[in-house]
Amino acid sequence: MTMLHLLLALLIISYCNDVYSFINTGIKSPPSNLNSIFIHQQTSTSTSLLALGDFTVSLEKPLGIVLEERDNGSGGVKVKELVEDGNAANSNIVVQGDVLLAVNNVDTSSLDFDTVMETIISCDSPLSITIGDGLGVLDMPKNVVKQLKSTEDAFLIDAIVRQSVR
Amino acid sequence: MRRRTNILGDLLNVEVVIGAGVQEDGKTGQTRFFAIFSTDGVSSYSCNVSSKGRSLDDDSIEILSLSAAKDEGLGQTYQFI
User: Fold this and answer.
1) How many angstroms separate the CA of residue A2 from the nearest CA in chain B?
2) Are A153 and B26 within 8 A, CB to CB?
3) Does the beta carbon of B69 lie under 8 angstroms from any beta carbon of chain A?
4) Is the Cβ pair A97, B11 closer than 8 Å?
5) Quick check: B20 and A140 CB within 8 A?
6) CATH level 2 (architecture), domain A2-164
7) Contact by Cβ (8 Å): A162, A41
8) pLDDT tens by residue, A118-147
9) Nearest residue of A to residue B32 by CA position?
10) Which of A6, A15, A151, A155 lies 20 to 30 Å from A39, alpha-carbon distance?
11) How many CB atoms lie within 10 A of CB A90?
């Protein structure tokens, strides 16, 4: 009987820690059982989950993306605009304001503009580019989280917010 | 929203989620949040955005309704979906 109580207590603590970590720090990678919600924030044949708001897409050259340096002081580039009827625009995935995180698994999140361009030019087509929505971890106060029944609900709301502003 | 209109300007950030609820099916949710926009690249303003969406079988998110109150009190609410 005591062991049963102990096991129940451990299970409750584990669950609470899961919710607590989401509330206070945000989870960059959701638990594996929640992946289904976030694997595709966009309809695509080649997106995959990296973190909330981040995904990888395969695009043919020319990409049709106009890039510009981010103004965050730590390097990296973001999508300034998309060329009309270009590959990126036609993918219906990349949008203005997205941050270019990696090109063919090469981390570009802190590279300067010229180095990013050189990286893209040196890669063969199609390119695997990883982009993020640049929103980071969304601020969801505790009183809002309390309105939700589970961590899954919180992730669903997170996904709806991100999709709404795309 | 970034694709749909230029009315609001450029999205700078999502500031805070101020309300959220999920229906019993666990697939449909409604939320309200503040988003920060800029129309000139210099100044910015916040917008109260209301959105309803659902998780589809292919795990994508479909937005069912979306509206933004650009100037609360002045009645400038934009209905996007």
Assistant:
1) 35
2) yes
3) no
4) yes
5) yes
6) Roll (2.30)
7) yes
8) 999 999 999 999 999 888 888 899 999 998
9) A161
10) A15
11) 15
